[in-house]
């Protein structure tokens, strides 16, 4: 599954544009007083302004499987990487055969660079923003993640992620290329103490050569 286009909210368009263009060095495709649209590898990330918005989104970017160490070095003097439980900045997901680092954007959204070993997408290039491959995860909040997953499977043919232990508390739909991470409200976004909240999110996905738009409120 591919996450082609994600639309979420920010309370400050200009600061958001500054972060993604100057800190993460991603290309701005379009900007006006109400929105900013950013190219993130093969995906598009759009922020719309809501001056009253005060919540946290979680999303992740795929990077080449062999570039996590370089990505950590690239992040120095750009963003503060979050410490995991063992005081390392690297989170290891054995079942998913992946490693990741986490950081915040200007909105206090929880962002993630994740290197997935099963994608076999290694690169010989020195890490920079051009090696941010795509948006690979977006967090969705629902009272019953497994039930929502079943509905999305029936309506759009989205499969549960086979590497995840899907449950009524935490479920994932998709594959290594793109995932919907569905959690219950007030579940802390790993590895933080920030409780999850349901936020307006619009997602255009491509799955089995079909395109669908998912809207969550």
UniProtKB/TrEMBL annotation:
Known Pfam families for this protein?
Glyoxalase (PF00903)
What protein name does the entry list? Glyoxalase
Q: Which InterPro entries match?
A: Glyas_Bleomycin-R_OHBP_Dase, Glyas_Fos-R_dOase_dom, VOC_core
Matching entries from SUPFAM superfamilies are given as: Glyoxalase/Bleomycin resistance protein/Dihydroxybiphenyl dioxygenase
The VOC domain, residue ranges: 2-116
């Amino acid at each position: 599954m591919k996450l082609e286009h994600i639309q979420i909210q920010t309370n400050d368009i200009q600061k958001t544009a500054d972060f993604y263009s100057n800190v993460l060095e991603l290309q701005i495709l379009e900007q006006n007083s109400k929105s900013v649209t950013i190219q993130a590898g093969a995906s598009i990330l759009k922020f719309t302004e809501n001056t009253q918005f005060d919540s946290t989104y979680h999303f992740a970017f795929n990077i080449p499987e062999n570039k996590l160490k370089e990505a950590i070095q690239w992040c120095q003097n750009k963003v503060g990487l979050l410490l995991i439980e063992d005081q390392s900045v690297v989170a290891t997901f054995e079942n998913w055969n992946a490693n990741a680092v986490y950081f915040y954007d200007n909105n206090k959204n929880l962002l993630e660079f994740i290197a997935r070993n099963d994608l076999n997408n290694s690169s010989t290039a020195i890490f920079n923003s051009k090696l941010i491959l795509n948006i690979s995860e977006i967090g969705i909040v629902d009272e019953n993640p497994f039930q929502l997953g079943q509905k999305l499977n029936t309506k759009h043919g989205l499969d549960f992620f086979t590497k995840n232990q899907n449950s009524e508390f935490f479920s994932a739909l998709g594959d290594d290329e793109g995932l919907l991470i569905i959690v219950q409200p007030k579940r802390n976004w790993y590895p933080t103490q920030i409780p999850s909240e349901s936020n307006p999110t619009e997602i255009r996905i491509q799955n089995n050569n079909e395109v669908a738009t998912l809207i969550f409120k």
